[in-house]
Fold:
Amino acid sequence: MPHPTASVSTTKPDEGSLELTEVIIRARAYRFYEERGREHGHDLEDWLRAEAEVFGRKPVAAGETAGMHANTAAVA
Structure:
């Protein structure tokens, strides 16, 4: 049982859980690829959709990621 004063937001996931999360996302993205009839060219879209599903977020369109990276670079 976690300590009552422990904050979930300040705890870091261990490396094993991060690897497991990536495996789950990869498997889900591959399922999307298979469901599309193994049509190539949608790998980023499939990855983002799977990631959103795993983390419970709204999927981001593949075209929107370019803008996100540009904004990140501008801030840095």
Remarks:
- Confidence is low (pLDDT under 50) at residues 68-76.
- The two ends are 39 Å apart (CA to CA).
- The longest helix spans residues 15-35.
- The helical segments are 15-35, 43-55, 62-75.
